[in-house]
Amino acid sequence: MPVPSQRGDARPDRNILLADLSRRLQRIDAPGPGLFSVTLAVPELDDVLLPPPLPDLWSWLRPGDGMALIASGTAYEAVCSSPERVDEVLRDLDWTHLDLESDFDQSGTEPVAFLGHGFGGPDPSCLPPAMVRVPRLLLRRLPDRCELIFSHHGVASASELHALWISEADRLLTALDAVVPSAAPVDLVRLDETPQPDSFRCRVGKATRSIAAGQVEKVVLSRRITVAAPRPFRPERLVRELAARHPSCAIFTVGFGERTLVAASPERLVACTGRRVESYALAGTAPSDPADPFLGGRLLSGAKDRHEHQLVVGWISSALNDLCDDLDVPSEPRRMILGQLEHLWTPISGTLKPGAGLLQAARALHPTPAVAGLPLESARTLLDELGESRSGWYTGAFGWIDRAGDGEMAVVLRCALLDGDRAEIAAGAGIVAASDPEAEFTETELKLRTMLDALRSA
């Protein structure tokens, strides 16, 4: 699949576009002490599908849907002690919004906050437990429109606000004009591995004995490796690789100073539009081989994978049932093919009860049995006993929510935490009674390879 283009041939002159933005922003008065956002339509940028080279990069893409959210700068940020605090922070924001000179209706034009958190418990990477960020400038590209959303938190004069926003627009437009060159693939060196292969196999054996003893039904074990490259990794180049390879995934970046988390997640934790809600049950994995026409059928009929998948379907359905007036749960899973792997996939949707929303659904759903196990508390206890740790927000959640409450969050999977020429990646496997240690190790190697292959060209 060809790599998406970073820029279009008809991109307008940066100075002309800046002058136009400056003229339109002159109409804005000084904001009050809360969070203030302004939306401007910019059809001139509707070719942008990938993030440019920006420091501290935050972005969210669904390439297959023609959707991109690209942030520049920070208007408001909160580091939270837990995912539960995220809801409190957003609820307490005094957020006003003005949509200027828009040629489209008001639905879907609300400003956006990014939000994310880790799996819970100690994080060896020392990332914040949870964060909320409203960018100073957000480029939102949808199939039917493109817009810039300027935001500011706190008191500022009209002239100060205008200068801040035009400076941020200049920075973003300059980055969008920069060419991100392709790079020849390089060899990666494995520097560290936690746990070691034999230790992982041993953990799988202990987990299946715990399942046989009735302690848990399922538990998810992971492996984490650190690799080095002969050159620094570039987040925007890795995003381009992932977008070309996995356009149906949610592809996102989360900047933490010198480090950047990049992921291509196939697992939708929750998405809300109005009162409609959707979540993916994604569990059961096999290699994908176009030369083997019967492979998909074996995945759909395999007892071990079907059992693992059905545990996740039942749990998600139960969690959403408490929040929904109605729920649609397909009776049979589908196959989701992602490069060298395919998974059993059941999309579950419903209509939220009045008062319920994206953040309530996310709290009810995370962590799912696909990344933790069942029963949840017993699985987390067993994970602690086995020495399991999750690093760099792996199996946490990341996404966006607009001021009206619509948005989407994905489970942080198929991810890499980039730090110069080093990258930390992780992969897991769901362990059930029929699990074989060697087969589960092979599954994690296949999942790791998804990111390793992309990193070689990043």
Overview of the molecule:
- The protein is built from ten helices and 23 strands.
- The chain is of the alpha+beta class and 458 residues long.
- The protein folds into two domains: 14-177, Anthranilate synthase (4-Layer Sandwich), CATH 3.60.120.10; 189-393 and 411-455, Anthranilate synthase, CATH 3.60.120.
- Strands 1, 2, 3, 5, 8, 9, 10, 11, 12, 13, 19, 22 and 23 form a 13-stranded mixed sheet that branches. Strands 4, 6, 7, 14, 15, 16, 17, 18, 20 and 21 form a ten-stranded antiparallel sheet that branches.
- Strand 20 (397-402) and strand 21 (407-411) form a beta hairpin.
- The longest helix has 20 residues, at 158-177.
Helix content: 25-40%
Count of runs of 4 or more consecutive helical residues? 10
Q: How many domain regions?
A: 2
Average pLDDT works out at 92
Give the overall form. Answer: globular
State the name of the first-level CATH class of the largest domain. Answer: Alpha Beta
Rounded to the nearest angstrom, the radius of gyration is 22 Å
Beta-strand residue fraction: 25-35%
Overall CATH architecture of the largest domain: 4-Layer Sandwich
